[in-house]
Write a structure and sequence with these properties.
This protein is mostly helical. It contains four helices and no strands. The longest helix is centred in the middle third of the chain and has 17 residues. The termini are far apart.
Length: 92
Amino acid sequence: MKINETNRIGGVNPYQKHAEFRGDEVKKARQKDEVQISAAAKEMLTSSKITNAERSERINELKESVSSGTYHVEAGKVAEKLLPYLRNNRPE
């Protein structure tokens, strides 16, 4: 009498199920991410208030003031900008 008959009706092969499961994972891994930029975002990118020359000039001014130690940060303005963010994102 054979105990390990492979041609039995209703025989269970646990390795077959594992192979099928792995096949689904490979299909999922092949999917690619997509990024879509809205029309409003595209418009914001094209309509810049400051030109590159003005921007680079402002950056150089800021670098000089920081290196000379004359750059001043107004804590009140920073707090006003941070407060709405902190109110909306506090842990519960």
